[in-house]
Amino acid sequence: MTHTLHTHHTPTLTMKHTAACTALLTLVLLTTAALTSCTKRVNDPAALAGTWLHTDDDSRDYLTFNADGTGYKWEEPLTDVPSFTPIREAIYWNLADGRLTIVEPDGDTDIEHVRQANDGLIKIGDDYYARQNTTNLKH
Question: For the whole prediction, is pTM greater than 0.90?
Answer without folding.
Answer: no
